[in-house]
Structures are given as structure tokens and as C-alpha cells.
Protein: Radical SAM core domain-containing protein
Amino acid sequence: MLSIFVEASCNRYSRDECVDCHVYEPLGNLPRSEWHLPIEDARIMAKNILRVDSLNALAQQEINMTGGEASQNPDIVEIFKIFRTVTPNVCLHTNLDINSDQSKRWLRLVEIMQLGGRIDITLYPVAWKRFQKPLLKKVLRLQKYLLVNVVFENLPDLNSQLGLLLDFFIEEGETHAHVGDLLREYQDKVQNLIKTNPDCNEAVYLKHMGNTGSFARKKEFTFGINLLPAFKVDALGRRTMASTPFPKDNYLIECPAARGSIDIMTVRQNGDMTPCCDVGNLQCQPRFGNLLKDSPEKILEKFTVSSKIMATGIIKNRDNIQNAKSGEWVKEGIPPYCS
Ligand code: SF4
Structure:
């Protein structure tokens, strides 16, 4: 998958066309004039994706337009159409925290869904009842797929968020019964863990959740869910070594690039590329080239050089973790939880 940043502002406060918006922290140094990815930059990105085979292969899996809040970009429909010239699989991740179905942000999402794009969401319990839920009902009338990210602080919080989704899909009736079955399976497991081992570590949690699938599929509707432990960020914007729900363990990321395989590439608004889901908050330093400025040859050269730097940094990280130095940054600029 190629995950492309198309917007810096997060739009969590006014829910519509805010002019004084909070800017997603890793993008905080962007001047206001550059908060929206311009149409012309999307054209350059699309052209360059097609010129680099490995990026094109990732794009054929999916281009995911993200941010900040992607629906806040006034040109998002045009940008969607440009990326659709690269691949039929273009989706947009939104907070769906929108005032009403009259909002320009919502109307943009409707246009994208009508053009065949998919909308995915992150569940926000505080915005669920009043803002997300009514619009999600409309989303289900416009598309046959949905991916939901659930970011949880602890097991009771996870249980409660699964409950919101379960109630929602029960209301949808028989056509979505398979989604209810999957959510019930998750919720039963989480509730059991809360009763039997509420302070468990991550390994116990993962074992307990077992091989519960991430998808509920039917011809009429396919649902996918990602359960993501939350983590804190320090004053320098650096992620903690442990997640919030499982504070006793290091919350490690396996770096695919250091192992020589790239499954995902994140492209920032300035064109910089990182080969994982680092949206800037992990502060990984080695770059895999710049999609706006570099030639295909230069991008491939950076792939090779940066993969080697990452592999070296990761060996040092493992050493640090084994020698009670976990959390120390190595000179390669690899976050200390990357393994
Ligand atoms: S080292 Fe970590 S942050 Fe950097 S690309 Fe690999 S997994 Fe991502």
C-alpha cells in the first residue's frame, strides 16, 4: 500500500471548514499555505509512482489518502481522480467527525464514494453518537466495504468501543449480521480477559485474541477492523517505548525495510518517503527518496542506502534492548522500538 498525506490540518475542533485549525504535530512546521496538498503535486506524485516499479506495485494494492484530515483538502476529489489514473484502488481515511451532511467535507466524501473510492474511519468515542454514527449509516448506503481503526487505551476502553460498533451493526439488521458475529467474537474475548487477567501483558493479550480474523466478508458487504494499542508521545514528539494498554512491555515494530521487503510506503506532503506506517510521529530519519523531487534512479539508490542504514540501526536497537539500554536512540536515526 502507498499511504499518501494529502492534508496537514486535523480538523478535530470545528468539524467543518475551519480556518484556525490545529495542525497534526509532525506537520506542524508546514506554513498554512502548504496545509493542503496541491493538485499539481498530486500529478507529479502520480507520474513518478508509475516510473518506479516497486512504488507502482504498492499503488496497485492500494493508494490510501490520509493526513491530518484528508476530507479537509478542498481539492480532494480532483486528487482522488488523479490517483485513480494510477490504480483503481484508491481509498481515503477520515475521522468522519463532521457537523452534518451539508458540510463540504461530507459532500466531498460522497463524491469520492460515488466515483468508486472507499472511505475508512478511525472510531472516536467522543464523536461517535452525534457525528460519526449518523454519517456512517449513510456511508453504508454508498459503499460495500469499510475498514475501521480502533485505537484503545486499555481493555475496558477496547470493550466499550467494540460495543459501540456491535450495537451499530445490530441496528443494521440481517444484511450485516456477519459483522456482528465478528465483533461479538472480539468482545467476548476481551470481556473474558478483563475478568480473568485485567493487567495482562501484550503477549498474553495477543495469545488470548488468538487467530480471530480481521475481516467479515459477504458479497453484500465486507468489514475489516484494526485494533491498535495507543501510545504516548513525549515533549519532543517522540513515541514511548511501551504502549498505554500494556505498559510493562516494549511495544516493538518489526521493520520490513531492514529485512529487504517493503509492504507499505508512507509519502509525506513534501514528498519524503518512509517504508512503514510512520506518519512522522516515529521520527525515523533515513528517507527512501522524495516522490516530488527525485528521479527514479535516485529513489532506487536511496532505497538501497537507507535499507542498509536501517538494518545496522536495528541490530544496535536489539543490542540496547538486551543490555538494559532500551529507549536509547542510535546514530542511524532509527526509533529505539524498531526491531
Ligand atoms: S526503522 Fe522503524 S520507523 Fe523506520 S522504517 Fe523501519 S519500522 Fe519504520
